[in-house]
């Protein structure tokens, strides 16, 4: 085997490792969100603390992927499509790390809510979380499959999360206006709704970056995502 062939094979293996690590980090973040919501719904403050402790694993993977991307850029000087893949991966890890922070934030509010009587049954917040988690999973699938249509589907789902956020906020504002004793609990639930809205935004960012990676075209500053590309 020639030296050039060996280098090329090693380079391709590292690109595959990059894809694998991104999926692994995304799966971990998705699990963090699911566990954070479980701690909220089940009012389990001990479980919430365990989820917070696991955030360091997400941060460690963020650093690991960044290091791999920088090594690929420095040693192989990739061009065109590979360059877009690596630079997109660098941006995706940032959104995944921030999505992981949303899980930590939800757990912090869940711990606070455990100290007070439950304000209301939680219905819309778990729905929001399920949609946002699905968006994150689909965005990462689109990345691995280089699937522009799937990435566009993710972008279009963001409106559903925004509408649920507005609905939750209106309901909780009504609670606060009718009974000032509910204000602290309602505010914490509003914070959680906003965290989930931001989680959906991070999934949308990833989907938009997938479109750029595959098509070399940015849709990030469009008022609405196009129906097709």
Describe the structure.
The chain has a single domain, classed as Phosphate transport system protein phou homolog 2, domain 2 (Methane Monooxygenase Hydroxylase, Chain G, domain 1, Up-down Bundle), CATH 1.20.58. The protein starts with a helix and ends in a 14-residue tail after the last helix. It has 229 residues and is mainly alpha-helical. It is globular and about 65 Å long. It is 83% helix and 0% strand. The longest helix is centred in the N-terminal third of the chain and has 39 residues.
Task: Record the SSE blueprint.
Blueprint: H1 3-41, H2 45-53, H3 55-76, H4 80-113, H5 124-145, H6 148-178, H7 183-215
Helix pairs in contact: 1-2, 1-3, 1-4, 1-5, 2-4, 3-4, 4-7, 5-6, 5-7, 6-7
CATH classification class: Mainly Alpha
Q: From the 3D coordinates, which CATH architecture would you assign? A: Up-down Bundle
Number of strands: 0
Total individual domains: 1
Question: What's the main sheet like?
Answer: none
CATH fold title: Methane Monooxygenase Hydroxylase, Chain G, domain 1
Instruction: Give the topology string: H per helix, E per strand.
Output: HHHHHHH
Residue windows where pLDDT falls under 50 for at least 5 positions: none
Shape: globular
End-to-end separation in angstroms reads: 42 Å
Give me the CATH superfamily: Phosphate transport system protein phou homolog 2, domain 2
């Amino acid at each position: 085997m020639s030296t050039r062939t060996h280098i090329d094979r090693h380079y391709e293996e590292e690109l595959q490792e990059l894809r694998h690590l991104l999926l692994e980090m995304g799966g971990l973040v998705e699990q963090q969100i699911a566990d954070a919501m479980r701690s909220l719904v089940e009012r389990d403050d001990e479980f919430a603390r365990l989820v917070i402790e696991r955030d360091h694993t997400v941060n460690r993977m963020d650093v690991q992927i960044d290091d791999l991307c920088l090594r690929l850029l420095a040693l192989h000087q990739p061009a065109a499509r590979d360059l877009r893949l690596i630079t997109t991966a660098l941006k995706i890890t940032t959104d995944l790390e921030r999505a992981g922070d949303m899980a930590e934030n939800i757990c912090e509010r869940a711990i606070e809510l455990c100290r007070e009587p439950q304000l209301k049954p939680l219905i819309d917040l778990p729905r929001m979380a399920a949609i946002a988690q699905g968006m994150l999973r689909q965005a990462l699938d689109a990345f691995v499959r280089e699937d522009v249509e799937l990435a566009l589907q993710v972008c279009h789902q963001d409106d559903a999360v925004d509408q649920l956020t507005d609905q939750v906020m209106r309901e909780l504002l009504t609670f606060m206006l009718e009974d000032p004793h509910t204000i602290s609990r309602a505010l914490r639930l509003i914070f959680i709704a906003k965290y989930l809205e931001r989680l959906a935004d991070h999934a949308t960012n990833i989907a938009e970056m997938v479109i750029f990676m595959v098509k070399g075209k940015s849709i990030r500053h469009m008022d609405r995502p196009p129906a097709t590309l």
